[in-house]
Amino acid sequence: MALTAPQTSGILPFDTPGAWISTIVLMALLQILIYVPLPFLVPKLRTPVKITTYLVANLILLGALPATTIAERSVNAALIATGNMMAMFTLVARKIRMPGADFTATLVYHRWIGRIILALCLFHGLVFLGSPTRSTPNTRTLITANVSFAALLIITTFSHSIFRRRQFELFYYTHFLYVIFVIAAMLHQKLIAIYVLPAMLLYLLDKAYGYYTSYRNTAVVRHVLILPHRVARIKFASATLKYKPGQHLWVQFSAIDRIWHPYSISSYPGEKHITLHIKGLGNYTEKLVKTLEFRQQESANPRDFPMSIDGPYGGSTVNYSEFSHVLFFAGGIGITPLASHLGSLLESAKLKEIRLVWTFQQEDQYEWFSEELVNLHAKFNGKLIIDAYVTRGRPSGDFFLAGRPKIDSIVKGLVREGGWAVGVCGPTTLVREVQQTCHQHSSTKCKFHVHDETFIL
After folding, report:
1. DSSP secondary structure string for all residues of 299-317
2. Which end of the chain has fewer CB within 10 Å, C or N?
3. Of the candidates 186, 218, 215, the residue with the CA atom closest to the CA atom of residue 199
4. What is the pLDDT of residue 395?
5. pLDDT exceeds cutoff 90 at 398
6. Which domains does the chain have, with CATH numbers?
7. What is the pTM of this model?
């Protein structure tokens, strides 16, 4: 069948080639980008290269699909946006996923695909509004187009890291506008329903299954302790939750509000209780810490603080248990997911050494995990080596080191026959420096296998 240019008015037929070609090409490319690790690139370039590749594929499709006028080209832009919508929704399914495609790892593609859809829709709309030869759209078509675009614009704007990090609730609630975005888009052009409804059905089934599992995963708070610098340590019990080291949960504290927030698990499998360390950073976590602090002062029963959980999700891309030598870099509260690995790894007969390099601003922040680290160090003396760096003020004893760690010197000094498993979690600057340094010092003699806990929604 010869490809022809799309019509520029009216309802497009369901077999319009631009839509199904875009869907097939982009969905196939997305799977390749998710599963191909690109080990030959510096780690900090791998995700940008994949996103750029996907963006270029959209531009190639826009130029390759048949079109004789700018109006027809703009229709193709809308058809390509339709193809992207299927990919966008499949990436946010938490439970029903392709094997190995972790929910947290694919969120970056979800965000960029949303931005690409916004750009394509903007081009589509501006061309029609500015074309002197366009047919006059009916009122329904015009209204649904504007409503759908407005919803998408709001979602995309408040998905920026500025809002996700500092105003999570704003990001969370505006995302429900996806319902208006999809419905208005389907009313604008019925063709869209054929390509979007299967992905939407998958997403809704995934949400329903998620609610079912969160209902089954009952959680009972056993102990709460407020630690220095607004960190709450919550220990809870769950008879149904099974997790692996380094995973995280979505948690709802209904006494605060009904929003679900993600938190890393800081305990390791086999411990009596599951532990979360939550730092008061934004409005929600500050409110949570203040509430727990008040309850602690009033000696309230921890069991009376309702808690719902969904998960676990995530996990390490490096199997630390396969290595005899492990190196962890943590910045501040970024030690949380790495601490989850320590207990399990130290009990492994294969492990010979874990080196933990933990950087924090003030000396008393060590209390966040002092109890856990002291117990592990005493139990596994010789296996666990801790380098604790204090970046502000002079340390009071010989245990703490002043300033910031010289990562290049540390990694270079650990080059040995075989290799190291490396985990890093903390500020972006720390993650990038560790990735780049380990990449530079890796060779056929000694390979540094790095997993970074970015945990960015």
Report:
1. T--GGGS--EEEEEE---S
2. N
3. 186
4. 79
5. no
6. 17-205 (no CATH), 220-313 (2.40.30.10), 320-452 (3.40.50.80)
7. 0.76
